[in-house]
TrEMBL record:
Alphabetized Pfam families for the sequence: Methyltr_RsmB-F, NusB
Segments traversing the membrane: none
Alphabetical GO biological process terms: regulation of DNA-templated transcription; RNA methylation
Similarity annotation: Belongs to the class I-like SAM-binding methyltransferase superfamily. RsmB/NOP family.
Keyword Membrane: no
Record domain SAM-dependent MTase RsmB/NOP-type: where: 177-469
Protein name: Methyltransferase
């Protein structure tokens, strides 16, 4: 019985029983089992693939077993999900995938269901991916149901994503977006201003170092690099940039921070606020930009633990950043009574539907019922921030969700509540900072900018910019 399969199985249980994050559960289970690099990679592929593909795999298991997934013992169902991923997602030889799964079932589930596992998986292994998708489509309740099952998305998420694309006149991109959600992203790195080298020069240097995976100066952020593989921490330790100035960060997040900091030149003495800063990725960009321009940043985060992560994240630019921990709706988050800020980032807590490719289990954990509480909080945080925006100051509202209820609806309502705010052209601001500039394909007539995994290779970040009347 391969130890990687046992680890992958345990991770599936951790995610289900303890609501664990798959990446954290994987790291600790791999450590506990002392897997070597190859087995660790196999355990990761198995667990992440089975979690991401769960919707589609369950439908295939139901078709093969002739019963609902909900009627199958949960332990057996996880064994089957791992087995189907090997058969259809990894092209493991069918006999090996079936035999290993039967062994796993004997070890972790009811031994008397080993025959059931054997039969269901053998039947699945006899048909190709295309044939299974055709069968899913034939038996589906509707076209949406078929698309949701085949692309392994919950139906409500599929509808939300389509609504957001339709609002930009790009409904036709839905299939591409759903496919992009199922591809683990390339590792992106931000090289912060102050690193003493630009991404292009660093990439050229790394290409000459054959012992390490290459960095390339690609992606839409002017600070961005992409890594072809390997452990980013080891690669970053090797590149010779001062610690903390080269860091793993999605390029959509980089662009969101830069759209605010580079919207117009920084006047020395400007005061900036990052209201929801944890764990501090964008704060580090703000801090580096503030240092260059002579501004200072107040970074607030409600959770004390995450505020500590912000402190660590900004260590390289700490002289420009003060970190505090309060509820962003409380006056204490803003410091001295009457203090106002020239630029405020509200990177609000959100459903995270724009980052599904990063966390394989996330799509199954979110519920539409989570949204009302989140949208209420988003509106309250924005109101609190708008109160403390200096005359002429700019507020950036950012989410890593494209759900319209968390994006345009929130902004339109804010503008109605607060006539002193005017929405700026965030598309122009993002294009203005992006690598490739005007070629960046931002769609729709709204002034806000929506980035997408399938179109930009970033998380689906939403960025709106609002200016207070001078
Ligand atoms: C989307 S994350 C911010 C990500 C961060 N800007 C970055 O780039 O690393 C939202 C953060 O808001 C925090 N948060 C949630 N409720 C809050 C509140 N009432 N006040 C302030 N922060 C809050 C969460 O703990 C979370 O760390």
């Amino acid at each position: 019985m391969s130890p990687a399969r046992l680890v992958a199985y345990d991770v599936l249980r951790d995610v289900e029983d303890r609501e664990a994050y798959a990446n954290l559960a994987l790291a600790s289970r791999i450590r506990e089992a002392r897997l070597d690099g190859r087995d660790a990679a196999l355990a990761t592929e198995l667990a992440a693939g089975a979690l991401r593909g769960r919707g589609r795999y369950d439908r295939i298991i139901e078709l093969s077993a002739g019963r609902d997934a909900a009627e199958i013992d949960p332990r057996t169902l996880n064994v089957l999900r791992l087995g189907v991923h090997q058969l259809l997602g990894m092209r493991t030889a069918a006999h090996a995938a079936v035999n290993e799964s039967v062994e796993l079932q004997r070890r972790v589930g009811r031994a008397n269901a080993a025959g059931f596992v054997n039969g269901v998986l053998r039947a699945i292994g006899r048909s190709s991916n295309e044939e299974w998708d055709r069968r899913i489509a034939e038996r589906a309740r509707s076209e949406d149901d078929a698309l949701a099952a085949i692309t392994s998305h919950p139906s409500w998420v599929l509808r939300a994503l389509r609504d957001a694309l339709r609002a930009e006149g790009r409904e036709g991109e839905l299939a591409e977006l759903l496919a992009a959600d199922n591809r683990p992203p390339r590792v992106s790195i931000a090289l912060l201003p102050g690193a003493g080298v630009d991404p292009e020069t660093l990439a050229a240097g790394s290409a000459a170092d054959e012992a390490y995976p290459a960095l390339s100066a690609t992606g839409p952020s002017p600070l961005g690099l992409e890594l072809s593989g390997g452990d980013p921490a080891r690669v970053l330790a090797r590149v010779g940039v001062p610690e903390g100035l080269a860091r793993v960060q999605d390029q959509g997040s980089q662009l969101a921070a830069l759209a605010l900091t580079r919207l117009r030149p920084v006047s020395p003495g400007e005061r900036w606020l990052d209201l929801c800063a944890g764990p501090g990725g964008k704060t580090a960009v703000l801090g580096a930009e503030a240092l260059r321009g002579g501004a200072t940043v107040r970074a607030n985060e409600v959770s004390a633990h995450r505020a500590e992560l912000v402190r660590r994240s900004v260590a390289a630019v700490a002289e420009a950043v003060e970190v505090v921990s309060h509820d962003g709706r409380d006056a204490a988050a803003f410091g001295d009574r009457g203090a106002v800020f020239d630029r405020i980032l509200v990177d609000a807590p959100c459903s995270g539907l724009g980052a599904l490719r990063r966390r394989p289990e996330a799509r199954w954990r979110k519920r539409p019922a989570d949204l009302p509480e989140l949208t209420a909080l988003q509106a309250e945080l924005l109101d609190a921030a708008a109160e403390r925006l200096a005359p002429g100051g700019v507020l950036a509202y950012v989410t890593c969700s494209p759900h319209l209820a968390e994006t345009r609806v929130i902004v339109d309502r804010l503008l109605r509540r607060r006539p002193e705010l005017r929405e700026l052209d965030a598309k122009a601001a993002v294009r203005g900072v992006a690598r490739g500039g005007d070629a960046l394909d931002l769609a729709g007539s709204a002034p806000s900018a929506q980035l997408w995994p399938h179109r930009h290779g970033t998380d689906a970040m939403f960025i709106a910019l609002l200016q207070r009347e001078a």
